[in-house]
Amino acid sequence: MVMMLGAVLAGCGGGGSGDNGAGSPVSPPRATGPATSPPSPSGPPRFTADIKKVSRPDLKYSWREGCPVPVSGLRAIDMNHWGMDGKVHNGRLIVNASAAEELTGVFHKLFDRKYPIARMEPVDKYRGSDFDSIEANNTSAFNCRQATGSGSWSQHAYGLAVDINPCENPYVSADGTISHKDCVKYKDRSLDVPGLIHRGDKTVQAFADIGWGWGGNWTGVKDYQHFSSNGR
Ligand SMILES: [Zn+2]
Hints:
The chain is of the alpha+beta class. The protein has one domain. The radius of gyration is 21 Å and the shape is globular. The two termini are about 35 Å apart. Zinc ion binds next to strand 6.
């Protein structure tokens, strides 16, 4: 963790200088003391995020011809997050370019309150399998697939939906079925376990602040892991 923070600082502090100010012989005034202390290496970890373009090989399994958004319309958010182990981890979320900034803000809020995320990897790590990604309790966004039990595009196919901790926050079909047996116990939404999203809590609120709706508010089917730009 300390090493990671150090790397981040090195990455941010490398630029600057090189300002030769028209060759003035007078040295610029030197501060007698730093106005702000540099962050202590032992200080609390800070949220870092970098929004990057992606290319076709990055999305080998999750994107194909005919998807409703071109590869150029997607971005990777490389960011850190708290894990279930109380440590900070690096994650990557593939999202619609139009939502990348706002979603970064949402995850910044989640980081600041130490909301734990089990893992955050592109579904390509699971060869595009939504089932396998959920089985690994993976938090993800873009996946060019149809909505569960439907013939139309999922909001995930646009990169405009995020599934968070899908085991603690399962998809519950209208008849109450949960497809992942290790996650059946989380049908009880009164449980107070790390990562479990409750109606109206700060995770739901962070998404609501950017206008995104929560699948836990649906009637019939409940999709407690699911947040999307249009609420579907
Ligand atoms: Zn979803």
